[in-house]
Amino acid sequence: MEPFWAVVVGIMFGAGIYLMLRRNLSKLILGLILISNAANMLIMTSAGLTRDAPPMIAAGKETLTGTYADPLPQALVLTAIVIGFGVLAYFLTLLQGAYKSNKSENLDRLGGGAS
Amino acid sequence: MNLLVLPVMIPLITALLLLFCQKNRRLAQIVSTIGAFSLPAVGLLILSRVHEEGIQVIHMGSWQAPFGITLVADYLSALMLSVCGLVGAAVAVFALKEDMNLSREGVFFPLLHALLMGVNGSFLAGDMFNLYVWFEVMLISSFVLLSLGKTNAQLLASIKYVALNLVSSAIFLTGLGLLYGKTGTLNMADLAVQLQNTESTVLLTSTALFFLVAFSIKAACFPFFFWLPPAYPAAPAPIAAIFSGLLTKVGVYALFRTFTLIFNQDTAIFQPILYWMAILTMVTGVLGAVAQMDIKKILSYHIISQIGYMIIGLALATKLALAGAIFYLVHHIVVKTNLFLLAGAIEKSGGTNDLKKLGGYYKGYPLLAVMFLVPALSLAGIPPLSGFFSKLFLIRASLENGDMFMAFMALAVGVFTLISMTKIWMEAFWKKGVGENERRPAKIKRLDLTVTMPIAVLAVVTVVIGFSAGHVFHFAELAAEQLIAPQMYIDAVMGGNAR
Lengths: 115, 499
What we know:
The complex is a heterodimer of chains A (115) and B (499). Chain A is mainly alpha-helical.
């Protein structure tokens, strides 16, 4: 499974960076969404994918036995998704504000110039 | 309660309390000031505790490292906590009478304390993922603070700032994922142990590069500094001041921590990269500043240039160089925040930051002129102020390495810094103001004590650091010793658990 997901993550990163390089604000945010989700998937993939083996201690046992999915990357990804979602939502409101006051989505036509 | 929790808990509680007392302006000011002033006190307390008992560690919920969340304070963390607390308190006082419209005021102070919480948390984090979370706490508060005014310039600056920081966070996460996949741990001390005898150096180097890029974006190193010059001048004075003092320095701290503790195996690859990054950051920053005619923009470019000086320490990686860089860090946070506060004070009293329209301050407001002179000369490295010693130690470190080129560059950049500072002095203070003549002095508004007091205190601190450079350097040296020999850090965190 891992090689497949590695390719998927690579495509997501590539597509995200391509979108970010366009001079358009809505494509910028789509690119950022793709990149931040690609990073999340990379955490899951690189930590190793285990199917059908929840990390639960069986009844009557003291410790985990056999193969089990590593719960830590899932916790990490959950945190990262929540943070990423919040920041991206805030970024959307910023873009909306910029669009309202400039009536343009093109980065070159936004006022203020380069600096 | 353990001392190490306080730098995070105090701003958290203050921010929450402030959300409840939005209606009562007086009460909000008192709560914010008390919260801000307790931070440097706690920082110094932690510093003295580290001095007496060695590295302080706390395992949250008694889950031993590497399984639980760990907070660690060594000399570097404790020094940074103290200085950042001091700067935070100065800005909190400076902002008391800031002319903010009411909708902004309700969120400004809670966000300021949330920002301080994120900064303090980053200094204490003993775990890479925790560092990421604290970074985000800090960044989210800074995003909102930067766009508070909702002017068009601020919105555009925020878009660049937020977009680049999101990219940097994604890169940081990618690095984290690869690191976890390789080692199965994220605790910094445990990582250091695991990676000490790793065989796959190629994989390790590629992962380290992710961290290098992510932290360099946050620290505004060459070639990743493009978000900084438009962002900082757009923000209102107190916000620009706290950003200039703290945000990039957290990136520098993260670079210091990871590249001395975790990625210290492959120095042959990273030393040249850091070396050239340091030089190019110094030079491009200072040259950018020469071209500007706006006080805040000049100062923003100088932040970049000075980040370069700090990276020198990491690039040379000797004890003296690291100590010099840490001294520089302490000096820079105080001086830079002070200069941005002064830029704010000039803007308040003169109505602009544009050097072409300013003038007559030397005659019209001598107090401000004297207070500007101290940090400005210190930044340029005039003895006996703090900036002189910080440059002296770094240049001596590069000469001891037999590196004439680096020493020469550091000196040359110092000269250019002096040119920029003289430019501000000549234009704003010495030149006659617009429409000023013998009978009619320039129109300069007097400033409130809450504005001048923090500036004066920070100026005094600059002088004190200069005159007691030996003591401060002693602490910087102790911090550098701990960075050079990470075994102390590992032993303190892991206890008997080292695998």
